C-alpha cells in the first residue's frame, strides 16, 4: 500500500475460480487502485491445468466434499433441525467417527468403474482410534486399470482438496511400503472444517507428475496416506481427483 497526494493507492491482484473447473486464475499483473479511479480490463481467459486426456475422475471440482458419502448421524446426537434436510446432512455431530464403523478392519478401497463416489467415498479422510484415545493416520486406496500403458512421457494426478487440518497427504503408486512417498503435501491446513461440521475450508490444489515407470499395464493402485495422527480431527476433505494420460 502506498500513500499519494490524492489519498491512498492500493496495489492489488485479481483472482478468480469457476465452479466445475480445477485450479485458480490469477491476473498476470498487479493492479494499482487509486481513489476515484476506474479500471477496465480486457477479456480475461482462464486456461485450467491439464496435461493430457482424462482417464478417470472422482468427485466434482466445486471446492466442496458435499457430493461424497455423508453417513447418517448417531440417533442420540441428532440435531432435528437438519433431520430432513439432506443438503445440510453434514452438519450433524460426530459423523467423522462413523468412518471406523464403516471400515472396522481396513481403510477405504475405491475401485474405478465399480464404486460410486456418492456412496463409496467417505466425505472426510480422518484418523483411526486404535484404543485408549490413540489416533493414527490412515491410507486409502484407488484401484484402476490401465489397458494401454504409454511408456513415454508422464501421467498427471490432479489433486484438489476442499479442506485440510494439521495434515500431511502422501501419495504412493503401486508400492505402499516405499519409505519416501512419490509426492507429499507437507504439513498443511488449519481450518477445522471436520470438527466444525463443515463440508469445505481452505482450498488446496496439487498437480502431481507421475512418471510412467511408476505405473503398470493392467492393475494399478494409488495409496493416499494422511500420515499425521494424534487427534480425531486431523484429516482432509477431497474436492476432486483426476488422472490424466500423457
List keywords for this structure.
246 residues; mainly beta; Jelly Rolls; 2 domains; five-stranded antiparallel beta sheet; five-stranded mixed beta sheet; 17 strands; 4% helix; globular; disordered N terminus
Describe this structure as you would to a colleague.
By secondary structure, the protein is mainly beta. It folds into 2 domains: 1-48, no CATH class; 54-244, Jelly Rolls (Sandwich), CATH 2.60.120.260. The protein is built from 2 helices and 17 strands. Strands 6, 11, 14, 15 and 17 form a 5-stranded antiparallel β-sheet that branches. The protein has a 5-stranded mixed β-sheet with strand order 7-10-16-12-13, with no helix packed on it. The radius of gyration is 21 Å and the shape is globular.
Amino acid at each position: 500500500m502506498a500513500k499519494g497526494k490524492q489519498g491512498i493507492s492500493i496495489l492489488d491482484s485479481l483472482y478468480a475460480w469457476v465452479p466445475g473447473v480445477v485450479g485458480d486464475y490469477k491476473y498476470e499483473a498487479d493492479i494499482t487502485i487509486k481513489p476515484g479511479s476506474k479500471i477496465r480490463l480486457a477479456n480475461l481467459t482462464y486456461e485450467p491445468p491439464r496435461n493430457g486426456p482424462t482417464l478417470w475422475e472422482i468427485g466434482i471440482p466445486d471446492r466442496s466434499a458435499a457430493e461424497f458419502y455423508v453417513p447418517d448421524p448417531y440417533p442420540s446426537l441428532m440435531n432435528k433441525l437438519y433431520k430432513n434436510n439432506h443438503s445440510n446432512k453434514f452438519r450433524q455431530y460426530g459423523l467423522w467417527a462413523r468412518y471406523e464403523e464403516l471400515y472396522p478392519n481396513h481403510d477405504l478401497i475405491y475401485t474405478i468403474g465399480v464404486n460410486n463416489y456418492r456412496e463409496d467415498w467417505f466425505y472426510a479422510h480422518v484418523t483411526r482410534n486404535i484404543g485408549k484415545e490413540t489416533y493414527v493416520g490412515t491410507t486409502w486406496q484407488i484401484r484402476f486399470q490401465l489397458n494401454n500403458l504409454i511408456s513415454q512421457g508422464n501421467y498427471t494426478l490432479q489433486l484438489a482438496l476442499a479442506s485440510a487440518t494439521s495434515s500431511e497427504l502422501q501419495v504412493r503408486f503401486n508400492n505402499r511400503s516405499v519409505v519416501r512417498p512419490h509426492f507429499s503435501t507437507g504439513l498443511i491446513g488449519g481450518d477445522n472444517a471436520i470438527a466444525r461440521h463443515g463440508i469445505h475450508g481452505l482450498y488446496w490444489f496439487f498437480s502431481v507428475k507421475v512418471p510412467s515407470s511408476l505405473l503398470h499395464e493392467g492393475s494399478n493402485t494409488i495409496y493416499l496416506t494422511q500420515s499425521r495422527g494424534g487427534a480425531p480431527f486431523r484429516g482432509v476433505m477431497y474436492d476432486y481427483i483426476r488422472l490424466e494420460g500423457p
